[in-house]
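> tool_call: predict_assembly(chains=four)
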Amino acid sequence: MSRLKMGMVGGGIGSFIGDVHRKAASIDGMIDLVCGAFSSSKEKSLASAKELGISDDRAYGSFEEMIKKEAKLPEEKRMEFVAIVTPNHMHFPPTKMALEHGFHVICDKPLSLTLDEAIELEKTVSSSGKVFALTHNYTGYPMVKQAKAMIAKGDLGTIRKINVHYLQGWLSTAVEKTGQKQAAWRVDPKRSGIGGALGDIGTHAENLIEYITDIKINAIAADLTAFGDGRSLDDDGNVLLRFENGAKGIMSFSQIATGEENNLGVKIYGTKGSVEWYQENPNQLIVKWLDKPKQIYTPGGNGTYPESSAYVRIPAGHPEGYLEGFATIYRSFAKELLGVKNGKDISTNPDFPTVIDGVRGMKFIYAAVESSKNNASWIKMN
Amino acid sequence: MSRLKMGMVGGGIGSFIGDVHRKAASIDGMIDLVCGAFSSSKEKSLASAKELGISDDRAYGSFEEMIKKEAKLPEEKRMEFVAIVTPNHMHFPPTKMALEHGFHVICDKPLSLTLDEAIELEKTVSSSGKVFALTHNYTGYPMVKQAKAMIAKGDLGTIRKINVHYLQGWLSTAVEKTGQKQAAWRVDPKRSGIGGALGDIGTHAENLIEYITDIKINAIAADLTAFGDGRSLDDDGNVLLRFENGAKGIMSFSQIATGEENNLGVKIYGTKGSVEWYQENPNQLIVKWLDKPKQIYTPGGNGTYPESSAYVRIPAGHPEGYLEGFATIYRSFAKELLGVKNGKDISTNPDFPTVIDGVRGMKFIYAAVESSKNNASWIKMN
Amino acid sequence: MSRLKMGMVGGGIGSFIGDVHRKAASIDGMIDLVCGAFSSSKEKSLASAKELGISDDRAYGSFEEMIKKEAKLPEEKRMEFVAIVTPNHMHFPPTKMALEHGFHVICDKPLSLTLDEAIELEKTVSSSGKVFALTHNYTGYPMVKQAKAMIAKGDLGTIRKINVHYLQGWLSTAVEKTGQKQAAWRVDPKRSGIGGALGDIGTHAENLIEYITDIKINAIAADLTAFGDGRSLDDDGNVLLRFENGAKGIMSFSQIATGEENNLGVKIYGTKGSVEWYQENPNQLIVKWLDKPKQIYTPGGNGTYPESSAYVRIPAGHPEGYLEGFATIYRSFAKELLGVKNGKDISTNPDFPTVIDGVRGMKFIYAAVESSKNNASWIKMN
Amino acid sequence: MSRLKMGMVGGGIGSFIGDVHRKAASIDGMIDLVCGAFSSSKEKSLASAKELGISDDRAYGSFEEMIKKEAKLPEEKRMEFVAIVTPNHMHFPPTKMALEHGFHVICDKPLSLTLDEAIELEKTVSSSGKVFALTHNYTGYPMVKQAKAMIAKGDLGTIRKINVHYLQGWLSTAVEKTGQKQAAWRVDPKRSGIGGALGDIGTHAENLIEYITDIKINAIAADLTAFGDGRSLDDDGNVLLRFENGAKGIMSFSQIATGEENNLGVKIYGTKGSVEWYQENPNQLIVKWLDKPKQIYTPGGNGTYPESSAYVRIPAGHPEGYLEGFATIYRSFAKELLGVKNGKDISTNPDFPTVIDGVRGMKFIYAAVESSKNNASWIKMN
């Protein structure tokens, strides 16, 4: 099996998400990082390349340079896809250019700075004939896939109630004023877009429930707040949810929930049973039943479906974590690329989040902001 | 210490809440049950009395009979207070009559069938010069009191986010059509009032967060649903919350959350820290901090305040439960009565829920129903 | 239903276990405390009686006085049974005397100061024709009874491994030197007997596993330690266990396990499945299976057997605690007494711990001490 | 930074632990797998190589062939270290040969088939001037390192009690007779040595407690059992522990603990506090104190020491798992090799388990077997 060659935009040494992408890409031994525009400073990009064991001539000072120069390299050397791990405002430009130059793309979420960009990217992906993946990584956890499979098979009956929360506390104080880079761009509308916590984590929550249930949100009523002094973007939000099938629900997300680390959790209730899952302890799925005792499923453990156990790397009881969930997105993306390389058509319903999920996330951001401006009135998401 | 003499309205053998009240009243050895109108059928009331070891002449066929006859008994024999443990529509009449005949009253929640009744009762209590307690029993748990004390002392800083849920699954199917009495009256507007799950458990959630934080809800936007076939009252609700101090939050309650037993939980976030508590495992309070490791407090355990440890009956590590929490309301009520007996004034801010909490609960029900009728528009609660 | 009349030996105001017994006796409304020798000081006994609402003439200065004087009272006034809640050295004398004067007895554990006393009491109980109960209260928890029922029905297959621990930290420092009464008698061989933590909590652990599995311990190898400066009795012990059916296991108990409150837990493994239970969160039984997902049973919850749900006082999800488990012993004892009053024979296998369990506990203490003196050699327990 | 070149002995496609080693080696981007004797069949080794993207000429049919041929390759191509991932009986031969041919070695545990081999390897490592690491991977978890650091700093005071368990259920039935390869060699003394579960997981438990506490076990009394029909090696064991500093403890391990997956847990009690950790939920360390509330530490979370946070790859709340813990051993080993390559001396106390830990593990196996043969008599481990 030959390995796939990856280029990267962003993710210089010290970046959080760039390092996550690199580790996630390497766990399963299918991908080699061969080049990068790790920074908009050529010097910093070179330094990162050196640290990562990449030769100087493959370290670029801009994504434009990278895409153009790589495109001219011989095929056996040339990168095959681009991983985009920049702040939100820098998702659209390199994604579009890479696709148009014949490279597949895997991009961090949310899809883009604006909804217009998202809609344009949907068209670009389609016309490019290239593969595009969005790293809504929480869909990569085996227990999330188990929940999805149980609902798809009807084990829980008709879904009637969906509650989701994503609670962090790292913006409880004004860390953006302390030189913390992660915070600085997230509270800046120029780099984040119109959503703050909403775009950063609310979209994960939205994606997760639609992924697990395969039921679309129909309308939302959102109450967004910027608690932090001087912040123009929300750092907290509460949302009423109505789903296309008549289910109701609630979402709460926050980056000022003091003391919370990365508390993403979901509870989904059907007529026959329910599922409950928490990201911070991801190796268990709590399943409650109308008339049987509560069960705890574990990755690869007794009673799990192939739809989840296929994503488990190690025997039951050996916990997998965030990086493995992330790696699952990369592995599925890599398998798709290998298929395409071998002449298969691009999948219409691939095993990873796509540009369609990305557009949906941007619609969620826009609907929530509009709702909140109108005192939490209902806004349709279709 | 002489024991207080209690009469009971409702709570015939086989009733859920009547038995709870009796056990709660007896745990601390301060109260004796001496008479009761346990049923509107004299025969059934007699049968219950026999079972409970109460003499036939103190078993009454109606609350009117009980109140009138007891009022004529000599003081050393006469009941001193009435516990009212009937369905909602039967809270107002016996409460009012008992107060007006000089008896103290402890009543199950919600306060009454209608808001008008509640407002009238507030006046009656005031003019009667008698003590009235409402059994919002969840305020009796030591860890709830610990959370309240920590917030009152400012340990958590300014409160900014309050999330609460109360999830049950026992009405997931149409049990009211199977002869289940608990279900039958709860889905019947004539006996329950205008709120279903809203009145039954939503009011507990509302009371709990206002009790713990001492911050009033300012306005709510509620989305109520009757999922059960043919139900006219809500069996599920999701609510956006805005508090008088600027905090925001969310409430979700349900009786169709399949597989849930009695999952009442609360998460409250301040600028310095947060608290998290779950009724099904009530002997721990999870406290998260801005800059210190997460802590777990236990009743009477290390670091607890007198404001909570005073309510602990047994050493740390010996779990107390629902009945003890309930008993704490009874004990505080009993202490108040003993004080009054000994010539103390009635407390203006007693250590148990009062008619004012009851009015507040009714306002919450009415605001939620009005909001929901208006597509979850904001309704003030003041 | 007439109530049973209880006298008490020990348990003056401020005592831990006396108050527990009183609350446990009162929860179910079947028992009235009518008299007591609450202290060996008449004055203190009177003070306690006053506090407890007992008339002065029923407050005695010694158990001898109480037993003799009560025996002369008319039957409708006379106490019917005695609750003995003194330190270990004061279990035997009042138990023996009460039985011989025609009173039933319920006594705290361990049964006696010495094994000889225990063996003598077994005979006295037998010859007295009276009912004797020992308050190994942890057998009263519904989930303990569920575990017992599952094993009895063969759900777990053949039992092969039994691990139990009982860990407390309250003797981590020399609290016995600070005037703490609970500590003072527990470290004193004259009042505790030859076992320290061994007798105080090790016997609970021993009783619990034999109760749940109905399999006897065959032999033990015990390593006891007195970590506390100047202590002559063990405050920590580790024990290898061999069972009559070939199962093996391990026990660890301690009162110097710093930070532990009352951590009693058990894991029992059969050929088909296993059960796991923890006293500090007693309302769940974790059941693991050879080939099915792990389950969590709750009191009165889905799938529980009548053998456990019969002991639940309130609906599933409403936690019961230590007092309720304790109360279950009292309730079963009270039902037995009512039966005997109504002419039934004394049960040969009653629904509460008996003198036989008490003798067994004393044998365990003696075997452990002998083993430990012989460098943890194996000592038979039969 | 140039990457290190790894060869592998064993670990053909389908093997559990081989795949774990490969993923662990690749996560941090410091190591490339360049060759392997993946199977004793040349054909199978070639197939595995193809699957792993390794060229045919680097796939060997035996470790001897690999070591000899690689030794002759030019330095820039030649493997730099060997990872040995075979059953126990095949640890010693390739380790010894590789070291003697100038290759560093990282080897799975236990160190060898026999204690004699282990002692010989200790000498070989010493004389070879090469680096040797043993993959006691559970020492790689950040919360294990946090516990170690807290004890080293004296936060818990003097350690007095150490309880450890490692419970699995996968050998509850005779899976070794079903063609399950993992089971087949583990129950075979020719391939496993004299310990069954003892060597497979007991040694992990032994290593973990000595690693965390830095206190040596002084003597053990072990009761080993082979519950499985026809098994000659233990599949279950219970052990009393005495430590060099006077602490006492207990160990229980099993592979017939039905329903358990990979339940390794440890509780360590000092005079001031205690720590508790479970491998199946590895991202929390429970810390209990003499006089403060219980705390929960998380990797990289509030209050963690640099000694643990240095090993965290992603922000607090993003769970790491088994592969990351394993990868930490590889990363530390790789850093040591890079240091040595750059002229540093070999560390005398490196940041990964060494041959000394391996000898210790073998001594534990031999002491436990001897003790068990002598009816659980005490055997010294020094």
